[in-house]
Amino acid sequence: MAGLYEKPSETYAKKRPRYPKEWFSMLAGLTAGHHRAWDAGCGSGQAAISMAEHYESVVATDVSEGQLRNAIAHPRVRYAHTPEHLTEDELVAMVGGDGSLDLIVVATSIHWFDIPLFYAVANRALKKPGGLLAVWGYNYEIHPFEEALHGQLYGALRPYQDPRARLAMERYRALPFPFEPVGVGAEGAPADVDVEVEMTLEDLAGFVMTGSVVTTAREKGAGEEMEAVVRDVMKRVEEEWGGAPTVPRKLAFKAFMLAGRPKC
């Protein structure tokens, strides 16, 4: 999985949307303490730096060294590389030990994880009571261009997609989530949440080109086909843009979220 985000990691850091501050305030209000948090699969740190506004320290981990090289620095965030061979005990120790965490966040990456292993680590590392796990994601459902991006683009590139990413494309409805609900979605029924961002047409194209399905299509020898599809889709988006492509406009990523506590 790490290779999907190594080459475009610098662009990825610039083109991914930032998550609403209100999400982190809401999650912080659901945890009993505010001492230590973990951003698992942190990428370039978009979630970690917002978590650090509410927690004394944040450990942010990722399997991709390229992503970590481009991560956003913050005095309360410690970034750490997590090679794929780490054991459950090693991961628990890396993030602070048993019962050490108030909050764990997985932002748009849990579908890449060894999910049973991660849940075992999360159950051990979260404080009981009071600890919270929150996961969320988004896909190509971006308003007002859902038909072009999710319909046409994703429809054409779906044969090249890593099967794990389909969890995100299906809005985590099939994601196992054996945690006690706290009013923010539940297993099989994630909460619908929007991420409103301002983007230029170039920004949106950069987002599309850093997606895992695009990278996988290129690596499977379908680069020319993929680029032709992207050109057609982005031409359609430009025609529907409703203004100069260099002028930012408000878009809404139709995101989805689950949050819960370890079951006693």
Task: Outline the fold blueprint.
Elements: H1 9-15, H2 21-28, E1 36-40, H3 46-51, E2 57-62, H4 65-69, E3 77-81, H5 88-95, E4 103-107, H6 115-125, E5 132-137, E6 142-143, H7 146-157, H8 166-169, E7 180-181, E8 191-199, H9 201-209, H10 212-219, H11 223-240, E9 249-261
Helix pairs in contact: 5-6, 7-11, 9-11
Protein name: Methyltransferase type 11 domain-containing protein
Domain Methyltransferase type: 39-134
Pfam family, one: Methyltransf_11
How would you sum up this structure, described in words?
Residues 39-134 form the Methyltransferase type domain. InterPro entries: Methyltransf_11 (IPR013216), SAM-dependent_MTases_sf (IPR029063). This is Methyltransferase type 11 domain-containing protein. The chain has 264 residues and is α/β, with parallel strands linked by helices. The protein has helices at residues 9-15, 21-28, 46-51, 65-69, 88-95, 115-125, 146-157, 166-169, 201-209, 212-219, 223-240, and strands at residues 36-40, 57-62, 77-81, 103-107, 132-137, 142-143, 180-181, 191-199, 249-261. Strands 1, 2, 3, 4, 5, 6, 7, 8 and 9 form a 9-stranded mixed beta sheet that branches. The protein is globular and about 50 Å long. The protein starts with 8 loop residues before the first helix and ends with a strand. Residues 1-13 have low confidence and may be disordered.
